[in-house]
Design a protein that fits this description.
N-utilizing Substance Protein B Homolog, Chain A; 142 residues; 75% helix
Length: 142
């Protein structure tokens, strides 16, 4: 598995944990430091750890904007109705699309689709693709 793909997987898992933890305990916002033991236990590779931290930190920092874009794009879907796995994948991919100049949007979308196929339902890949593709087309128009 490529290093960035592995980092995305770790970041997705951390963001999923964060989403569930906040929902259950109504917890305060978390920082990337709260995931350090998880990141460390997931890999020994310092490059993978570094990119996973960037992804987690950036996604958490931009979460309000990201959630707003998802809500505007996911017609007839409240953010809370989107499966937590899919919601976490969408957030991660949107951070890469909006907040990272090093990742082409199509790569972020493809990686998100692969995560959805691996960790969610059979229909999730198409759902994630549809949302991200609509947002990508909006970004290109601007």
């Amino acid at each position: 598995m490529r290093k960035r793909t592995q980092a995305r997987e770790i970041a997705f898992q951390a963001l999923y944990q964060h989403d569930l933890h906040q929902k259950i305990e109504n917890a305060l916002p978390t920082t990337v430091d709260d995931f350090e033991s998880f990141i460390t236990s997931a890999t020994d590779d310092p490059e993978v750890r570094k990119y996973a931290r960037i992804l987690i930190d950036g996604t958490l920092a931009m979460r309000q904007d990201i959630d707003s874009r998802i809500t505007q794009t996911a017609m007839n879907w409240k953010l809370s109705r989107i499966a937590p796995v899919d919601r976490s994948i969408l957030r991660l991919a949107l951070f890469e699309m909006l907040g990272s100049e090093n990742v082409p949007p199509k790569v972020a979308i493809n990686e998100a689709i692969n995560l959805a196929k691996r960790y969610s339902t059979a229909q999730s890949g198409a759902f994630v693709n549809g949302i991200l593709d609509r947002i990508y087309n909006e970004i290109r128009k601007q």
